[in-house]
Amino acid sequence: MQYFNERAERMSKDEKHALQSERLKKVVKLAFDSCKPYRAKMDAAGVTPDDIKSIDDIVKLPFTTKQDMRDNYPFGMFSAPMDDIVRIHASSGTTGKLTVAGSTQHDLDDWTEAVARGMVSAGVTKKSVVHVAYGYGLFTGGLGAHDGATLIGAAVVPASAGNTARQLMLIKDFKADTLCCTPSYAVYLADEFKKAGIPVSDLSLKQGFFGAEPWSEEMRVKIEEGLGLKAHDIYGLSEISGPGVACECSYQAGPHVQDDLFYPEIIDPNTLERVPDGERGELVFTTINKTGMPLIRYRTRDICSIISEPCKCGRTTVRLGRITGRTDDMLIIRGVNVFPSQIESVLIKDKRISPHYHITIDRINNLDVMMIEVELQRDIAFDEIQAIEAMQKKLTADIASAIGVSAKVKLVQCGTVPRSEGKAVFVTDNRKI
Ligand code: DLL
Questions:
Q1: Taking Cα atoms as reference points, which of 390, 397, 138 lies closest to residue 242?
Q2: 61, 211, 243, 356: most buried by Cβ count inside 10 Å?
């Protein structure tokens, strides 16, 4: 078994406890001293850095949410001065505002090492050719996987997302042994290889790192058979760092959390109390070693469990169970996080449409397709084809620019979008994951 950082990955329980405690104390003090929103939250909760004596005291600390990020947009959650921030990433917020994350060089180094540890645990070496088909940009997938593989010394192919024909050519001709992309795109690539008449035996793929959206054991089988590789689950979120917060080793028994850097807890989303290891609930992370934008008890909204039994690989880090859903209404469409409220805020700006809409998501040919039915106001004549077409075009463009992924907009007559009696149901998700 290869380790990137055996000391960190195989720490004894006592050593880990001591390190996590020391780091938590430091990060809480940093946030309290340098970030106004944290001081205000801790003051309101009646807790000071002196109350934090060990990692077990973490439960005394208040939670942080996406709302906090939004209230302090763009840089209000940073604990470091701008001089020390060297990278800014962002993901969708619930409305027009992005959720912003800033990193110092120290944070980038930790994140990169986290990715490298995960990749090495699943077989990547300096001899590897790593094809990165995650998007490069504000999304953390591309640059995160890129930097981690570079640190290992592998040859990185920064293909980024899109242009499938070129992806097939690069993967085959450059003899990539490692593939990084979303699991749904991996299934799509497998199908496209098949359609192009390229058998798995012509490929050099050995392992892949798939994440950024939920997937299942059934998809794992499809990907492994279709691409002839071992498929590893990689988890992360931009607020915490990006991919590699947790990653599966060659035993594929749930992603190992780099818990000397990112401390996980599972809470009951209703009572906000911690639940025992093994039980499902909402995943909460504290970035115990970050300096740019430390997050304390950040509610990820992802539903999963913590596996604390030791893994056969010899690592002592805790693992995550499969992510089975979210405690909010965030959708992930082709790897892009989308909140219905973002779509709604585009729609309400157009006075010609009613406030009723319905989103339907399907997976067609392994690609997510989103359709938004939007009702016209009563006084707009449905037979003015030209006007309707222009409106449809505009809404399609506005929505794509608001959410960062394309959707089909279908204008329908007033009264045709189903009304619900209780809580409004805006989304029908037909994807079978
Ligand atoms: O998706 C970071 C990432 C990139 C992870 C590439 C893995 C690979 P965000 O765009 O901020 O960051 O979205 C984070 O995506 O809260 C989960 O809901 C979901 N997610 C990420 N990885 C997984 C996974 C990146 N392996 C949100 N399984 C998270 C299920 C995942 N859901």
A1: 138
A2: 243
